[in-house]
Design a protein that fits this description.
Creatine Amidinohydrolase, Chain A, domain 1, Creatine Amidinohydrolase, five-stranded mixed sheet
Length: 474
């Protein structure tokens, strides 16, 4: 793979490494870029994506490279190009050019890494983070003898790390939680491309077409503007399937199309969901539920301010949604009591959002260590237990706000979840049946926390009901 200098100037990466060192102290650090993963044989690989911690500090997608250093002294270790690389892969920047662009002192052959680690005090004194790619993980194991398992990046817990590695993880989290100007510029650029994609998808939507045609229109805009999908796009009339991987169905009049699609630009992600009527017009029940979800989105966004606990942002969305369900006669009871009991989670089972940055779920490779503040752990309550983020918000954090309403058979047919609400009359199934044409609605925005009112970075992507209908081709 050809390696190119980063888009930004070296001062961006020098500043980030200095902030990391200020948070960490004088521990030496090694971070791995990772390797391409094969699809079905060694030479047929998935598109390469550098590990985000390496990318954050270098701006460079460099397969197999390792960043090593401390203080202001940093080097990159990489495999020298093969004699025929230019034939197959094209010209690559010289190592001197790359070193200057990244702001490191030198780039050296990967074979010299082991001796360099010894020069920095040895593996026991050096901090690193678990690599994602299997080959890099094996390389780390050989160099550092760390006791990491294959599934240490579990969402529901902290990755077990040595003392130096744990210190690095906490320092990296503290630096990456709030974004610098260069990061925000890339996120804004990704969202602008996402805006184009969603408008293209809306314009192509009509009864009789397939979901994959809409997905292709969206992702064409990503490609045409130098971006890639930040994750597997969800484009589905089965909006009740939260992480639907399939887009093969034909769209019919009366369907709602849920589209969760975001562009990634220079490694920085966006994450936006809109839901629109295939026929170009909401039915009365669809419109009623859409407006409830939209109000939950608006009310939660308004809570995105410095010092506010993100769990409270989630609970605000839950209260607004529950109030709407009570108004529609689907639930009965006191709003706060219903939320405390988790009645809303029958229809809104996931958390209201997550961190956004280089990763679409930023830093989730570090598990709940990144998403949950010190002393905070996941709730055991259904619904609230899926909340990915429970930190106090700070200026220049970017989070998603994505409430939804879903009619999920696996939930609504589960006596252990619905039984208490059926028995005491809280859940009014006869009234709920009137909303059978609402399979799933989600409205998601990317929001920057500022010193004042929140900045909705994705505000230009239509979400008011009439604005959405006006964009649909039908």
């Amino acid at each position: 793979m050809s390696v190119y200098p980063p888009i930004e100037g070296s001062e961006v990466f020098i500043a980030r490494r200095r902030r990391l060192m200020a948070a960490l102290g004088e521990l030496p650090v090694a971070l791995f870029a990772g390797d391409p993963s094969p699809r079905n044989y060694a030479a047929n690989v998935h598109p390469y994506r550098a590990h985000s911690h390496f990318l954050y500090l270098t701006g460079t997608a460099w397969p197999g490279a390792v960043l090593l250093g401390e203080g202001d002294e940093w080097e990159i270790f990489a495999t020298p190009p093969a004699p025929d690389d230019a034939l197959w892969l094209g010209a690559s920047a010289t190592w001197d050019t790359l070193a200057a662009a990244i702001g490191v002192q030198a780039i050296r052959p990967l074979a010299e890494l082991a001796d360099a680690i010894v020069a920095h005090g040895g593996a026991a004194a050096l901090a690193t983070l678990p690599a994602i790619h299997p080959r890099s993980r094996a390389q780390q194991a050989a160099l550092f003898a760390r006791p990491w398992g294959l599934h240490d990046e579990s969402l529901h817990g902290a990755v077990p790390l040595s003392e130096p590695d744990s210190a690095l993880a906490e320092a990296m989290i503290s630096v990456r939680l709030s974004h610098d100007a260069a990061a925000l510029a890339h996120i804004r650029g990704a969202i602008q491309i996402t805006h184009r994609g969603h408008l293209a998808g809306m314009a192509l939507t009509s009864p009789g077409r397939r979901e994959c045609e809409v997905r292709a229109a969206i992702e064409r805009e990503f490609t045409a503007h130098g971006a890639v999908p930040a994750y597997g796009s969800i484009v589905s009339v089965a909006g009740e399937i939260l992480h639907n991987e399939h887009s093969h169905q034909h769209m019919r009049a009366g369907d709602l199309l849920l589209v969760d699609a975001g562009a990634e630009l220079h490694g920085w992600a966006s994450d936006v969901t809109r839901t629109w009527p295939v026929s170009g017009k909401f039915s009365p029940t669809q419109r009623a539920m859409y407006d409830i979800v939209l109000q939950a989105n608006i009310d939660a966004i308004d809570q995105v301010r410095p010092g506010v606990r993100y769990r409270d942002v989630h609970l605000q969305a839950c209260r607004t949604l529950t109030r709407g369900l009570v108004d529609e006669g689907i639930l009965r009871g006191d709003i706060d009591n219903l939320v405390e009991r988790g009645a809303h989670a029958l229809f809104f089972p996931h958390g209201v959002g997550h961190l956004l940055g280089l990763d679409v779920h930023d830093m989730e490779d570090l598990g709940d260590r990144a998403g949950y503040g010190p002393g905070r752990v996941r709730s055991q309550q259904f619904g609230l237990g899926y909340l990915r983020l429970d930190r106090d918000l700070a200026v220049d954090m970017v989070v998603t706000i994505e409430p939804g309403f879903y009619l999920v058979p696996a939930i609504l047919q589960d006596p252990s979840l619905c039984g208490p609400f059926d028995r005491d009359g809280t859940l009014q199934r006869e009234r709920l049946a009137a909303f059978a044409d609402v399979r799933g609605i989600r409205i998601e925005d990317d929001v920057r926390c500022t010193s004042g009112a929140p900045e909705v970075l994705s505000a230009e992507i239509p979400k008011a009901a009439q604005a959405v209908m006006d964009c649909v081709s039908a």
